[in-house]
Specification:
Blueprint (H helix, E strand, L loop, with lengths): L1 H7 L2 H11 L6 H6 L1 H24 L1 H9 L2 H20 L3 H4 L3 H30 L7 H10 L12 H22 L5 H19 L4
Helix pairs in contact: 2-4, 4-5, 4-8, 6-8, 6-9, 8-10
Length: 209
């Protein structure tokens, strides 16, 4: 908590974290040309997302600040990328289908990085939902999130492990959304319900007159 407070009271550092974790993903054309650069960029963003998640877990003040900056809206492209790459591959041109094994490996690496980034985004969102934050953006992000559940990963998929992590995180987000949006039962209503149940049990045990 003390470290999170210190970061929060350093505006330049807080804004730098926001800028890094919400930076746009590396375009596919650059990923294909320089896979090392794309890998380094992906690892950097994933690390920043973990740091932001830890800070939000430690400080509600920090989590609220990120939510006010529209963090989840800025991170939406990473969720879209993770669930959009398969569609682009399936609809590729004939020349793409006849690409070399090296090109296929690059494509798989791009998809793996996208899935790993989406997992970190979903884990961060789950933390914000625990505070009751960023619930309203689910309306806009639902089509993207639901696409991860459209097809269950198969064991022969080389990225099965990463897809399963994404599916597990989606269910965690749905659970967090339910806890954040369903109101707690009113204490008076609970007391009345218990009284009614007790009266019903007592009436059931009374001998007929």
């Amino acid at each position: 908590p003390e470290a999170a407070t210190a970061v929060f009271h350093t505006p330049r550092l807080a804004n730098l974290l926001l800028s890094l974790c919400s930076s746009p993903p590396v375009p596919d054309e650059y990923s294909a040309q320089d896979s090392k650069l794309a890998q380094e960029a992906a690892v950097t963003v994933q690390g920043v997302l973990r740091v932001v998640r830890a800070l939000c877990q430690a400080s509600l003040e920090f989590a609220a600040w990120f939510a006010m900056q529209g963090l989840m809206t800025k991170l939406a492209p990473r969720l879209l990328l993770a669930n959009g790459i398969p569609g682009r591959v399936e609809g590729a041109s004939a020349s793409a289908h006849s690409a070399s094994a090296a090109a296929a490996t690059r494509c798989e690496a791009q998809e793996q990085r996208a899935l790993q980034g989406a997992v970190e985004v979903l884990r961060l969102w789950r933390v914000l939902l625990a505070y009751g934050l960023e619930c309203e953006c689910f309306v806009d992000l639902f089509p993207i999130v639901a696409s991860a559940l459209r097809q269950w990963p198969t064991r022969d998929d080389p990225l099965c492990e990463f897809r399963m992590q994404q599916v597990a995180c989606v269910y965690s987000v749905l659970e967090g959304l339910c806890h954040a949006t369903v109101p707690e039962p009113d204490a008076r209503a609970q007391a009345q319900l218990k009284q009614q149940q007790a009266e019903a049990r007592a009436a059931a045990n009374e001998p007929p007159q």
